[in-house]
Input
Amino acid sequence: MKLLALETSCDETAFAILEDGERVLANLVASQEELHRRYGGIVPELASRKHMELILPLAYETLEKAGTLLTQIEAVAVTNGPGLIGSLVIGVSFAKALSFAQKIPLLAVDHINAHFLAAFLEEKKPPFPFLALVVSGGHTALFLVEDYLKFYLLGQTRDDAAGEAFDKVAKLLGLGYPGGRIISRLAEKGDPQSIPLPRPLLDKENFDFSFSGLKTAVVNFVKGLKKKGLPIPVHDLCASFEAAVVEVLVTKTLKALSVTRVQDLVIAGGVAANKRLRKEFQEAAQKMGFRLFLPRPEFCTDNAAMVGVAGYQKWLRGEFAGLDLDVYARSQFPRYK
Ligand code: KG4
Ligand code: ZN
Output
């Protein structure tokens, strides 16, 4: 069964073709980084327009790469939220048109759901139930996942997402956009213990996160140095900031594993591409004896292959969307009790 998946929730236009829900025949991502860089962040209006420009050529390119004819595609899966409304609308409209013209089912996929299902794109697949930590530019959340499409929220960020904090700190330091990758590269040459930064909510008995205080601590540190006319130790600051974010994510997640007594952990979302985060989770898994499922970096950052995995599960269950399918900016997930 061949399925076409697409993703336009943010600033990546992405297409994939999957066979039987797990074999990736093609996975293409057209990033808009270049376009938004000069503004230091995503400009939603520009993102929508760029999606519109890229979507059709990228669809053809994906079919060609997969050696697949449009007539061989049996279903179309699309992200309909959460994300930027104007961007989502482009992808959803495209998918509706394709569904209508080809008379194939339309499958609506939640972007966060898709992120942690990226783990199924790898050879070694996680068994249910597992815990999922989704760390991206828009989300930082922990879930107990009972089945592909059935999962419960344990906790999430009260303010900034982890990736958002990376992006904001990078902007503050004038390092460019998107911040995560740049900070993590600079951090490699810095000392993660050199600058004391807070670890927000670390000692709280819940699974919520908060990163805006950490960002403010970086702002204040930089202001203090500037006032004294001192240079900013960029490498050390990046390393210390990254270490603080990673420590909070690892500690909270380990606590959730112990409280829920779950033995399997999936980490996904753009920040899961971070080397330090991957290394610390790998070390923790060895020490504590839980199994870790880390999708390769290209399946962590936004892509359509992960959308295909979720879409295929909907297809198996006959959960088809109508042509009146709407988009949404935020997800409401049921809570873990
Ligand atoms: O999942 P994603 O591609 O898009 C959203 O759904 O938001 O995540 C993008 C986020 C950005 O904030 C970016 O700075 C961050 O992931 N990111 C990283 C790394 N690569 C991407 N953060 C830290 N280290 C990285 N290597
Ligand atoms: Zn994402």
User: Anything to note?
Assistant: The radius of gyration is 20 Å. The chain has two domains: 2-116+300-317, 124-294.
